[in-house]
Amino acid sequence: RIVHVLELAGGVMEELGNATGPRMDVLNSHCLDFMQSIK
């Protein structure tokens, strides 16, 4: 479970560091996954 959360966090960081700017749909899907995984 922890690994999955870390992967999600990594994906979010990668998206925020994206040169073209973060894509909100990608961030939203990461957030939804995150909320599901910590329940």
TrEMBL record:
InterPro entries: Mediator_Med11
Location of the protein in the cell: Nucleus
GO MF annotation list: transcription coregulator activity
Any one Gene Ontology cellular component term annotated for this protein: mediator complex
Keywords: Nucleus
Keyword Transmembrane helix in annotation: no
Main location (coarse class): nucleus
Family according to the record: Belongs to the Mediator complex subunit 11 family.
Protein name: Uncharacterized protein
Organism of derivation: Nymphaea colorata
